Amino acid sequence: MSDAVDVQVSDPLADVRLRLPSLLQLIREDIGCVRLRDPAARSELETLLTYPGVHALIWHRIAHRLWGAGWKFPARLLSWLGRFLSNVDIHPAAKIGHRFFIDHGACVVIGETAEVGDDVTLYHGVTLGGTSWSPGKRHPSLEDRVVVGAGAKILGPITVGRGTRVGANSVVIESTPPEVTVVGIPARVVRPELSHRRVVGRIDLDHHLMPDPVGEAISVMLDRVEFLEARLAHLQKRLRDGNGPMREGGDAARPGPRAVERT
C-alpha cells in the first residue's frame, strides 16, 4: 500500500485573504477620520456613500494588496476603475498609512513610489509627482500629520517633514523640516516650528503669508513713479524760479542752439 501523497494547491490570493481583516480596519479608520477633519460630514454612512476621496482610497487599498500579491495587471485595472469613478489617480504601488483623508477628492495624483504617513490630509488638486523617468524612488514621501492645501504640487524624491503644512498652490521641490509651514513657488518656510500657531479645530496653512510676485512688482513700479513725479516737480519749480534745469555737475543747463534761434 503506497503512502498517501499530500498535494498542496497554491492559492495566489492567500496573502490577500490573510490581510483582509487589517484591510477592513484601515478602511474603517479612513472613514472615521473624515468626521474629525470635515465638519460637513454628519455620519459614517454618509461619508462612505458620498465622499469620492473615501471611494478612491477604498479602491486603492484593495488594488495595493493585489499589487503586493503579484497581481499587477488586476491592480492597475482596479486602480483605473477607481480613477474613473472618483477622479483621483493613485498608483496601486503607492504606500499610504492610516487615517488618510482626501478632502473634496478631485484631480489628486499620487505617483508609484510616493509614500504617505499616518493622519495625512490632502485637498483637491494636489499632485505627488515625479521629476524623472528613471526607475527607483522618484516621488515624494510625506511623514505623519502633513496637511497639503488645494492645488499644491510636491515633486521629486523629497521628504515633507512630520506635521508640515503646505499652502495652497505651492510647489515644493526640496525636502522640508518638520512642523513648519511652507508656501510659494518654489515653496519656502514662512513659519518655523517655534512660532507655529496651534488653533483648536482649525487647519492653519498661513495663506496670508503667500508671496505675491505681481503685487511686489506693482509696488516697485509705484515707488519708481513716485520718485519720478517728485523729481519732475523739483525741476518744474527750478524752471519757474528762473534757475533752469541743473546738470549733473550742479551748473544750470544752457539753452541749446535751436532755443537761441527761436529767441
TrEMBL record:
SUPFAM superfamilies, A to Z: Trimeric LpxA-like enzymes (SSF51161)
Record-level GO BP terms: cysteine biosynthetic process from serine
MF term (GO), any: serine O-acetyltransferase activity
GO cellular component: cytoplasm
Keywords recorded for this protein, A-Z: Acyltransferase, Amino-acid biosynthesis, Transferase
EC nos: 2.3.1.30
Organism superkingdom: Bacteria
Reactions catalysed, as given in the entry: L-serine + acetyl-CoA = O-acetyl-L-serine + CoA
Family: Belongs to the transferase hexapeptide repeat family.
Name of protein: Serine acetyltransferase
Organism from which the protein derives: Bradyrhizobium sediminis
Lineage: Bacteria, Pseudomonadati, Pseudomonadota, Alphaproteobacteria, Hyphomicrobiales
Gene: cysE
